[in-house]
Prior knowledge:
This protein is mainly beta. The chain folds into three domains: about 25-75, Membrane-bound Lytic Murein Transglycosylase D, Chain A; about 120-220, FlgT, C-terminal domain (Thrombin, subunit H, Beta Barrel); about 225-335, Rod shape-determining protein MreC, domain 1 (Thrombin, subunit H, Beta Barrel). Helix content is about 15%, strand content about 35%. The chain has helices at about 1-20, 35-45, 50-55, 280-285; strands spanning about 25-30, 70-75, 80, 90, 110, 120, 125-130, 145-150, 160-170, 180-195, 200-205, 215-220, 225, 235-240, 255, 270-275, 300-310, 315-320, 330-335. The strands form four sheets. It has a six-stranded antiparallel beta barrel with strand order 7-8-11-10-9-12. It has a six-stranded antiparallel barrel with strand order 14-15-18-17-16-19. The protein has a four-stranded mixed beta sheet with strand order 3-2-1-4, with helices on one face. A hairpin with a 4-residue loop joins strand 17 and strand 18. The longest helix is centred in the N-terminal third of the chain and has 21 residues, at about 1-20. The chain is elongated and about 75 Å long. About 30% of the residues are buried.
Amino acid sequence: xxxxxxxxxxxxxxxxxxxxxxxxxxxxxxxxxxxxxxxxxxxxxxxxxxxxxxxxxxxxxxxxxxxxxxxxxxxxxxxxxxxxxxxxxxxxxxxxxxxxxxxxxxxxxxxxxxxxxxxxxxxxxxxxxxxxxxxxxxxxxxxxxxxxxxxxxxxxxxxxxxxxxxxxxxxxxxxxxxxxxxxxxxxxxxxxxxxxxxxxxxxxxxxxxxxxxxxxxxxxxxxxxxxxxxxxxxxxxxxxxxxxxxxxxxxxxxxxxxxxxxxxxxxxxxxxxxxxxxxxxxxxxxxxxxxxxxxxxxxxxxxxxxxxxxxxxxxxxxxxxxxxxxxxxxxxxxxx
Length: 336
């Protein structure tokens, strides 16, 4: 009996020790120039963890800039803000600031995928894929095809073209105005031989299924990686569509927004995705018509990285979602 009690006690002590070790934390004191994405990358190896932090602290106006002296509790798998009620843990003071040489931040890159597509109001083609060497309906990498060119005299064997599909016209979810056409990149072909009416070509890369009728435009190498960067100006816009017309979007999906290069948006800019928070039914009953004017913190849904810009639109890769994201939700980027 005594042995059994000793074993139970040992197990309890071991379990308690494991729980304590699992919850070990330290306090990091924020210094000038720190960003939440940089801290997330440094301590928990996930630069896109911070939307989880912001979602539980909606009073933070700008989630990727915080103020010096603020304290964060760093766990192996998460980050929490230190409040007056929390017990202090081991403090990890920031390195002392030096004037020279300047501090160089490690770059954070995001992998982009081919075939993400975009929305644009000006879309033109230089040819059409008209047939293949066999009767298959869908074509892919390695297949040989025939294309009809609008100006074959300016094309030579070895030239490459991007294949794309021209989709429907897109309306803005709020204003209902036409924004442009939904364009889906399909892959890349390389011309092998010029014939009197058509040219022979080979599909050297396919992002998705390719059908007869696919259009050609001058070749543009697909973006493989995007380096994360801060916006040069505060920007606010709307999520206007997605690649697959999903009703609800989530992590690793691509969406389109009504901001572009003319607004100062650049590939690599980090965008916060949110939704206005409406007053509850009880609040409306208590406050009457004044409840509609009650300003509440927005619901944070996630974050995305701009992977391609057009003049008035951009493609956004959703890198973190803490709730379902829908067409019409807000996007914004803020500068310090």
